[in-house]
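Aim 2 progress. For TonB-dependent receptor, the working sequence is reproduced below.
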Amino acid sequence: MRILRSGSSSMTVLSVLALGAPALAQDQQPTQTKDSIVVTGSRIQADGFSAPVPMTVLDTEAIESNAQPNIFTTIAQLPSLQGSSGTQVNTYSTSSGQQGLSAFSLRGVGAIRTLTLLDGQRVVGANVNGTPDISLFPQLLIKRVDVVTGGAGASYGSDAVGGVVNFITDTHFEGIKGNVAGGITTYGDNASVVGQLAYGTSLFNGGAHLTLSTEYQRDEGIGGGEWGLGLAGGRDWFNETASIDTGNTAGGAPQFLVIDRAQSANWAKYGLINGGPLRGIAFDETGSPRQFEYGTDCISGFCQGGDLSGNVSTGRSLQSGLQRFNTYGRFGVNIGSRAELYTTLNFGWVQSNNQPVHGQNKPSLTIQCANPFVPASVQAACADEGITSFSYGTSNAALGNTQVHTDRRQYRGVLGLKGSLDVAGDEWSYDLYVQHGTNKTKVDVSNILLNRRFEQAINAVELNGAIVCADPVARANGCQPLNIIGGQVSEAALRYVQPDFGPYQHTRQTQDVAGVNISGSPFDNWAGPVSFAFGGEWRHEFYTVEADPYGAGFSNTPAGGNYPADPILGADGGNWYAGNYKNGSGAYSVKEAYLETDFPLFASDGAGELRLNAAARITDYSTSGSIWAWKVGGTWDTPIDGLRLRGVTSRDVRAPNLSELYAAPVTITLPNFFDPFTNQSILVIQSTGGNPNLKPEIARNTNLGVALANPGWLPGFNISFDYYNLEIDDAVQSLTANQIVDFCFRNVIPATCQAFDFSNPPGGNTLQVASFNTASIKTSGFDIEASYRWLDPLGLPGSLTLRGLATHVIEFVTDQGLPGTVPTDTAGENLGATPNWKYLAIQSYENDLFSLFVQERWFSDGVFSNNYIECTANCPAFDPATNKRTISSNYMPGALYIDVGGSYNLTENFTAYFKVDNLTDKSPVRNYIFNNPALYDQVGRTYRAGVRFKF
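Predicted structure tokens for this construct:
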């Protein structure tokens, strides 16, 4: 695997892990020779300058050796990328709209704070939060990926708070190349296939060039398993571990107990009477009563062991199914010998599907004893106890499982002019372009309840010898009685409460950009050429979303088709069990201008070479006004052979995205929300929307590093160390539903009391969630990278390459900036995205006939939360000043994954290859609270094989 990094003078790729190479603008094409790859972390085009910011580069060989059907997976393995999404993340989600979305997160600060570019140009977002989907990129033509991890905003543009991921395509590819591959897991699932083809040729005697590519990928995904503890494919690592709140804050025993094989005492697979004198009567699939098996140590509504058949967590997809199709074309015409007029067209299509959970849990229902579906023996027991109703909970296994289907389609076109010209005897390079992108996303949910119809359907009576819905209005509008005592559900009732049509959200986003970048070296000072880059960009972002009338409300969405008006349903929407999407729209414009300089301070054999790099950018947002970003940094190539020092400090900004500003209120159901006012669990309908009054986030990013590159005393050896410190102020955050209620209950922020209504109005208990510029984030740590390339090892023809990258997160402190809250440090929390240590190590051997590849991916042991104190006895009492709770176990081990692969050159044009990911079939943490797919591999051992060809 070839991984390159900036930070030294010019050198060949064959002899060094490029800790720094001659700097060109990120969109300038390197020469076509294998020995020359040029990278940069700035807009300056000055040969011999190396960026002061740390940067990792993956070239074509690195991408190919990792043999992933989606390049996103290869890049996301880099230790500096923490909290990226992908097909293993968001599989439990119904309403987020991010299912199957492949987006990068640098430094763990989120995908919305990582700027992702294609040939140095922005790409229209695949989600209303502005993040593009890497699955929509033309992947076969990508010749390298630059990952800049600091000080990038002033050079590359707003939103680059965590850094920049820039994809560089081979715009002048010549010939035909392709790739065909397939894969499957050791469990016989997640079958995948990928086919890619690219073609490039010169036209009109070299006066023009045409490049085309197309590709298709299909991943079957890994769906939900069996009810209880059975995961898909017979995977046996799930153990239904839970953290149970005992309510004890006085000390002595821990407040939270971590138990395996946990089950709720409030519901069962086919129903459970969970309160009153008949508590403990459960029902089998036929509706026959039986005694529920509670297990032992029942606390706070949970027990250990017993009847686990009603567990819903095994229904979550372990990996979303995905299909993607992409076509790309570029046509360029030479204008004279020094300019090219070009256009690119790209169409990408991605479909994903996931199952969020088993069933549709209803833990707190009231059933009348006289309901004709209640067995006679239970009706008799009601009479004996003198009750007319009982409390009831069910997983609703008989209703089936919700399915979410997401379809994203991207249309993108660019028209540009790039080249160079002489001005006053000096050469200046330029790139002017305009771009339009449209992304259309459809989220369609099926097999899901209409809550109010469900409530009417389960309230059944006998009338004239027939079982009917009790409410005459509901009966007149098609209500069919639903039997939730057991698993015998009529088709008519099922179609009434769960119609063939479901919630949908159809979004259209557009992005229009016009930009110019100019660079040159107009004069020399005493130490060498002084270089400048300057330019500007105008951008307009727009979105609109349409939702179904049952979710958005009939007053907002015209009724029609399969969504007839129903007086039982709420006219204002919010009727679905989940997926209550809303209508909305919003837009904003951005104007930016920047200036960057590379200024040599001295250069001599005795003192080395010192260069200053500085940039400033003014950005004007139509929503919040103007704001400055800047950076100051430099590099010193010391007189010591191969030793370089570098550093940069910057001010970067990120404006609120369309979602944060104008998101249509999304409604979800919280079926078991704790109400501190009544000390009970209640059903809450939560609505989350945008805040147009948000202002930009401001970040301060500092990086200091040292690199030793290809010293004469050890050719082929490279090592670097870079310290980083990132602080973000005015960070946009959304108060959680629990915080809003808790701040009201404790009178911390009285204004939050206006955000909810728990008086159980006809529409249900409601709670409004919004975002504010109240938080701050501070993270620091360091990156280490080393490599050694040994030519003809032990006399064998070829080369042996050893490489390693590691990131250590010292701290990741989030301060909500709210009264009564204390900062929290999540570094080392393995339920999050920032373990203390994360590394990637590669060993590869290659010659003219074959190659072998071994890779290790590792992250360190951690905890559930740094806000826990682990103890089993003599625990301290809760102290609000520290907000630390006590827990019986607070350990979450790390993991080591080993991948192996290789290739064999069948002919000059054909190469066969194989790859085995997670060779030891390492399972996620088995006995801990939650599996975290952002860190742990849920899939298991995966085999891949394919053939590449090139003519």
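The longest helix spans residues 376-385. This observation will guide construct design in the next reporting period.
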